[in-house]
Write a structure and sequence with these properties.
InterPro entries: Metallo-B-lactamas, Mito_Persulfide_Diox, POD-like_MBL-fold, Rhodanese-like_dom, Rhodanese-like_dom_sf, RibonucZ/Hydroxyglut_hydro
Protein name: Rhodanese-like domain-containing protein
Organism: Sungkyunkwania multivorans
Shape: globular
Largest sheet: 6 strands, mixed
Strand order of the largest sheet: 1-2-3-4-5-6
Number of domains: 3
Keywords: Metal-binding
Distance between the termini: 56 Å
CATH class of the largest domain: Alpha Beta
Number of strands: 24
Length: 470
């Protein structure tokens, strides 16, 4: 028996390759499925099943393509009603895989079709659970994403999740291994641990949601408390996972069309496409196509695209480092952005050589920023999360989290110069690009972000109770 977790850091997502005696099951595959197929072929094994724990909201799964390419049936749990052929497992239904058995345990609550897959080894002993978004390490799946589909409140879904955990998962032995669908950084939970594998026994000790003496009322309160609004693209990904999507090869062929500067400019004007610059922030600051949006491949690329562009149907034109065009299109497709129309051949250098207008971002060092603070009052906007800001921030700075920057546009000065920063420079450059695309050019980025600001000795404020923030 072989179990391999295939973890994608950008999405904080875990897919799983399980093999026994020449037969393979894939759980929650990513959009690009060739790695799973190549791995099985290399082991002289056949993919027998594609298991889905639920209809994912934060990424588009590769279940349809993988099933088409291998002939393996797709398996969902009870209550799933996809628009394509699939096995809808009954609670407790067993699936033989070589010498092992995979059992579908219906664990509704995150969504009503959510299912945990229990793996029993060659001797019939409970070995591991693949929990999807039902149980994370340190947390559980948020219960507010499926309210509309389930016609239930988040409190009702949370109560359902409480029952699922206590009747299906907590009775299992402490040595059972927990393999979740996500880790720290995912928007599908609140307090996930950085680890991606643990034992159920340790989770019973560490995870607040598995406290033995916890009442259902206490569980509902804790699980629903402090939930931030989900990204706007989540329901669109659910729809694609449930109803279907284009093949990844079609998307790659369309998205990797090279365009000359003239053709690129014409396409942008004719289609209303977002010009997405995925280079490093240090390159974007020196020069970029006017009104282009920066979201660099080097950071949490796909989630930020989903959070800030939101509409998966939005046409996109790419400016990418040479050789990174296919990677960018692939990573966009992971979160459902399939409408990439091509990329700027020769990159930004070709745009400049063609004599096209370009823009820059004014950026200063943390020391220069510190000097400006000492010389008088200057507006400062911190685009980190509220939790980061509350912990420590520049004196008198305003908190305008990047995820909700469009809600804060009226707060930025229209004429006076202001400074913007994040933790290290990535998010503030995204913010700067969005502000400039909206005609707000009187900004200065602080290179290196709060880390550099603090090292420079600028005045900062420690913890402030959130209720006192304005």
């Amino acid at each position: 028996m072989k179990i391999e977790q295939i973890y994608t850091g950008c999405l904080a997502q875990g897919a799983y390759y399980i093999e026994s005696n020449g037969e393979v099951a894939i759980i929650d595959p990513l959009r690009e499925v060739k790695p799973y197929m190549e791995k099985a072929a290399g082991e002289n094994a056949k993919i027998k099943y594609v298991f889905e724990t639920h209809f994912h909201a934060d990424f588009v799964s590769g279940h349809l393509t993988l099933s088409k390419e291998t002939g393996a049936p797709i398996v969902f749990g009870p209550n799933a009603n996809p628009s394509f052929d699939a096995i809808i497992a009954k609670d407790g239904q067993e699936f033989k895989l070589g010498d092992i058995t995979i059992v579908a345990l219906h664990t509704p609550g995150h969504t009503m079709e959510s299912t945990t897959y229990l793996l029993r080894d060659e001797k019939g002993k409970d070995h591991a659970i693949f929990t999807g978004d039902t149980l994370f390490l340190g947390d559980v799946g948020r219960p507010d994403l499926a309210q509309k589909a389930a016609d239930m409140t988040q409190e009702q879904l949370a109560a359902t999740l409480y029952d699922s955990l206590r009747t299906k998962i907590m009775p299992l032995a402490d040595d059972v291994i927990v393999y979740p669908a996500h880790g720290a950084g995912s928007a599908c939970g609140k307090n996930m641990m950085k680890e991606t594998v643990d034992t159920l026994g340790n989770q019973k000790k560490m995870n607040y949601a598995l406290r033995a003496d916890m009442t259902q009322k206490e569980f509902v309160k804790e699980v629903t408390e402090g939930l931030l609004p989900p990204p706007q693209y989540f329901p669109l990904n659910v729809k694609m996972n449930k109803e279907g999507y284009e093949d990844i090869d079609t998307i790659l062929e369309r998205g990797t069309q090279p365009l000359s500067p003239e053709a690129f400019e014409a396409a942008a004007n004719e289609t209303g496409a977002v010009v997405l610059d995925v280079r490093h922030q240090d390159d974007f600051v020196k020069g970029h196509v006017p009104r282009s949006i920066f979201i660099g491949l080097s950071g949490d690329f796909a989630p930020w695209v989903g959070a800030l562009i939101a509409d998966v149907q939005q046409p996109i034109l790419l400016i990418a480092p040479e050789g990174k065009e296919e990677e960018a299109v692939t990573r966009l497709s992971r979160v459902g952005f399939d409408n990439t129309l091509g990329y700027l051949k020769g990159g930004f250098d070709a745009w400049k050589k063609a004599g096209k207008d370009y823009d820059t971002v004014t950026s200063v060092s943390a020391n220069a920023f510190k000097k400006a603070l000492s010389e008088g009052k200057v507006p400062v906007f911190d685009v980190r999360k509220e939790s980061e800001f509350v912990s420590e921030h520049v004196d008198k700075a305003a908190n305008t989290p990047l995820s909700f920057i469009n809600d804060h546009l009226a707060e930025f000065p229209s004429d006076d110069t202001f400074y913007v920063h994040c933790a290290g420079g990535y998010r503030s450059m995204i913010a700067a690009s969005i502000l400039k695309s909206r005609g707000i050019h009187n900004l200065i980025d602080v290179a290196g972000g709060f880390k550099a600001i603090k090292e420079a000795g600028a005045p900062v404020t420690d913890y402030v109770c959130p209720s006192t923030l304005k």
